[in-house]
Specification:
The complex is a heterodimer. Chain A is mainly alpha-helical. In chain A, 71% of the residues lie in helices and 1% in strands. A two-stranded antiparallel ribbon of chain A has the order 1-2. In chain A, strand 1 and strand 2 form a beta hairpin. In chain A, helix 14 packs across helix 20. Chain B is mostly helical. Chain B is built from two helices and no strands. In chain B, helix 1 crosses helix 2. Chain B starts with a helix and ends in a 14-residue tail after the last helix. The chains are: A mainly alpha, B mainly alpha.
Chain lengths: 580, 87
Amino acid sequence: MNSLWLAVIGMIVFTIGYRFYSKWVAEKIYRLDPNYVTPAHQYSDGVDFVPTKKMILWGHHFTSVAGAAPIVGPAIAVYWGWLPAFLWVTLGTVFAAGVHDFGTLVLSVRNKGQSVGTITNKLIGKRAKIMFLFIILILVLMVNAVFAWVIANLFVKFPASVLSVFLQIPLAIWIGYAVYKKKKGMLLPSLIALAVMYGAAILASRVPALQIDLVNYFGGAENTVMFGLSGVSMAFLVWILVLMVYVYIASTLPVWKLLQPRDYINSHQLVVGLFILYAGLIFLQPKVTAPAMNGAATDVSWFPLLFITIACGAISGFHGLVSSGTSSKQLEKETDARFVGYLGAVGEGVLALIAIIAVVTVFATKADFTAAYSSFAAASAGGLGNFINGAAQLATGIWIPADIARTIVSIIVVSFAATTLDTSVRLMRYIIAEIGSEYNVKALTKTHVATTVAVVSSAALVLLPKGPNGFGSGGYLLWQLFGTSNQLLAGVSLLLVSIWLKRQGRNYLVTFIPMVFVFFMTLWAMIQQVVFQWSGYGNGELNMLLFGIGGLILIFVFWIIIEAISAFSRNNPPPLSKEM
Amino acid sequence: MGFYDQFKRAIALYDEILRQPHRTEIARELRDEEDLFMLLCFSEMLGLPNPAFYYTLELYPVIIERFHDWHLRAGMEKSPLEGIRCC
C-alpha cells in the first residue's frame, strides 16, 4: 500500500473533525460568545494577559505542545501494526484530544484564565490540589528519566548529532543575550544558529573525527571498560551524567538565557522537520511494509496498552496545562478558542501521523519489520531509532542524502527532548518547593536543594530499573508509566469540563465519553502492569521501583474516580465562576 | 498585494508567532526589574534607610507616572505613600 494514502486519509479525518465536529462543539456545546470579555482584555497587563491574534496564539500553542513525545509513542506503538496506531491517532485527535484542549481552554477563559490545577482546587478541594501536585510530580519525574534516556540513547546510536546539539547551547545563549540585552530581532540570529547547527551536522556526518562517539573511545561495544560495564553501557552512563549536570545548570538559569532561545530555534526545527517529512513523503511515496495488524505481537496486548503508549499525539494531559496556563490568558476573542485549542491538537496529530508513516515504511519487507519488532521490549528499545531511519528515508525524497538526513532528524528529536527535559526539571523544582512549603519543610523551598532532589531522583530513576537490554535501558520501561500519568491528567481535565457542562445544563457527553474511555484504559493498563507484571504475582518478576511508582499512580486513579463520582453526584454545587 | 509584500507579511507573522513566549518572558523580567527599581527609589518612605536618597529624590518628578502604574499593578488603588499624591 502506498503510504501517501495514510497521510491523505488522516488529513481528511482531521479536516472533517475540525470543519464540522469542532464547529458543532463550539456552537452547541461550549456555546462560544464573540462578545464575551476574555481574561486577556479584562486583566490586560502587558505580560501574562495580552490579547493576541488567533494565528499567532495557535502557532505559540502548537510549538509549546509539540515535542518528542508524539514521535516516541507512535514509533513504539506500531509494534501492534500500523492500523491500531493510525486509528487511535486520527480518531483520538478528533474525538478526545480536540475537545480536551479546546475544552480546557474555554473552561479556563470562563474562569479568569486560571489553570486546571487551580480550578480542580476550587472544584474538589485542597486534598485534590495536593493530589494534583503529586500527579504532576510523578509525570515530570517520568519525563526527566525517559527523555534523559532518549537523549543518551540517541547520542550513543547517532554520534554525528552530538556536535550540533552541543553547539545549540552557546548559540541559544548568544540569541538570548542579543534579544534581551541588545534588543535585537530574533529571526535572523536564530536562522543563523540553525544554519550553523545543520552545517555542523553535514560536516559531522561526513567527517568521522567530528563525531563524538564514546563507544568507540571506550574500545567498542563489546569491550569491558570498568565495573563490568561494556563500552555501550559506559558511554550511556557518561551521557546521563553529562545531561544531569547540564539540566542542573539549565534549569536554574533565568529562562530567557537558555530555555526560551532554544525553544525559538526548536520552533524552526519543527517547521523544517514537518516540511522535510511531508514533502519527502509526497515525492517518494514509499510503500507500507509493516502489517496492518501484527499477528506476532502476542506478549503484550494492544488493548489497552496502545492507548497509553501513544500518550501525546492522540490525547495528552500536558496540553491542558498549556491551554489553561498560557493560551487562555492571551485569547483575544472567545470564538478563537476553537482555532487555537482544537487546531493545536490537530497539529500534534499531524506530527504523530508522520511519525507512524516514517516507521511503517522504513523496512524493506514485512519480515524485516517483524524481526525489528520481535517483542514489545524490542519495540520500546528500538522504536525511536526506527523513526529516525524512516524519517531519513523520507528525506531522500527531496534529495537530502540519507546519512545527513539521519543526523538532522536525530538533532531535531534530541533538541525537542532536551527542551522538554529542561522545562520538566524546572517544573519539578517548583513542585518540590511548593510541596516543601505545603508541609513546612523549609529546606525543600531552596532552589538548589529542590533542583538537587529533582536531578538526583531523575538520574536514579533512569539508571536503576533493570531494562530489557542491560544497564540503563530501564528508561523505556517507564514510557508506559509516563503515558499513564499523562492520560490520568487528561482524564482529570475532561472531568472538570464535563462537570462544568453538566452544571450549565448542557450535553456533556462530548467530554464525558472520552473521559470514561481514558480512565478505563488507564486503569486497565495499570492493573495489568502493576498487579500481573511488576508485583511478582504469577510468572512476573518483582520490580520494586516500577511496582512502587505504578502502585502509587494506581491509587491516584482510584482516588480520582471516587472524587469524580462524588463531584458529579453533588446537588446544588457552587458555580466555578460567577460570569461563566 | 504583490508576491513580495505577501512574503514579507508571512515572514512577519512567522516571526511574531515564535517571538510570543519570549516577549512574555522579557516583559516579566523587565517588570521585576522595574519593581525593584521603584522599591529602591521609595525605600526611604517605606522606612528603609537609603544612602542614595538624595539622588533618587531628584528622580521623583520623572518617575511619578511610573509610580502610579506600579502601585496600581501592586493592587493598591491609591498611592500608599503620604508624601506622594499621584492620584
